[in-house]
Prior knowledge:
binds NADP nicotinamide-adenine-dinucleotide phosphate, alpha/beta, 22% helix
Amino acid sequence: MKVKGLAALSAGASFTPFEFERRSLGSNDVGFKITHAGICHSDIHQVREEWGPAIFPMVPGHEIVGIVTEIGSSVSKFKIGDRIGVGVFIDSCRKCEPCKSGLQQYCDEGMTGTYNGMERDGKTVAFGGYSNGFVIDQDYAVTIPANLDMAGVAPLLCAGITLFSPIKHFKVGPGMKVAVMGLGGLGHMGVKFAAAMGAEVTVLSHSANKRADALAMGAADFQVIKDPEDLKPLARKFDLILNTVSAMVDVNAYLGTLKIDGTLVVIGLPDAPYKVSAGAMLNGRKSLTGSMIGGMPELQEMLDFAGKHNIVSDVEVISADYVDKAYERTVASDVKYRFVIDASTI
Ligand code: NAP
Ligand code: ZN
Ligand code: ZN
């Protein structure tokens, strides 16, 4: 399948039109026309090699939605015309315990990323969703609920599932006080899902101008945090903190805002290790943990939940020539609240 895409040809380069070939349809494969692809901060980290050496040319994009155009001979899950989504991985070993239990993101052999890696044949470079066509094994694709807007649903394929998964795992519900650090693409989905589950949500943000939006999304409180001192009045307040900040933060100061036995979940992935003091963990038996996206069954469960509760991302739909600018604005925390590329402009 010949497709058009947008590629960074080298680390940190601006985007340029790039034509390439997707694999021809296998019996278990689905071909689809991409309608929208979200811009995740992980795309930016990888294009800029903030996580180490990357593969170029790179076509990023792992928040992909579209319409099925072709199906292989053994495809049963989709038919032509269906709304389909692909997230952060396109395959995994399928044999290990995590894969068999639906936790493909934690595959023992490593999940096969949607881009910036090799497909499972070990020789084909995987190209992501900043493009107009895709081929995916049906087992690694999900169905988009009919009532949800396609542009608004695209970010759910990474930002949505990445917050839904820890929110489910830590049994967020009525009576719980949950803090979301950073109101960006991931954070705003955390607010919507945690509020929908019945928790009392506080946003901890360094951008004072996001207050009204946070409250409209379902947050009960919004605190501007510019300095660790600003956290002192919030001592021992939260059961759970979801840290979605893309930059380095003083985790110790945030641990102080947890109740006894509270948990801080690391979700943001800055380019350097956090410094954690033993004292901040010991005083109150705090837990510091992490969470990475979600598995295939949970991805579908999240979309079905979103369909039922009418939850989508707040998006700014952009055309292909705006992606470089969108990267700059995302890094400057100036996104309301996810940029989504209209793939028809590629
Ligand atoms: P984003 O849209 O850029 O949001 C990040 C937010 O962090 C910003 O909106 C801002 O919120 C806050 N922030 C940014 N720089 C800051 C600074 N210098 N000091 C304090 N706060 C700052 O990014 P995203 O797409 O949501 O991704 C967030 C992080 O999660 C990235 O590191 C990404 O790679 C990672 N990620 C992890 C997973 C996973 O599976 N764990 C999945 C996807 C992405 P305020 O303006 O409200 O302060
Ligand atoms: Zn992502
Ligand atoms: Zn596996």
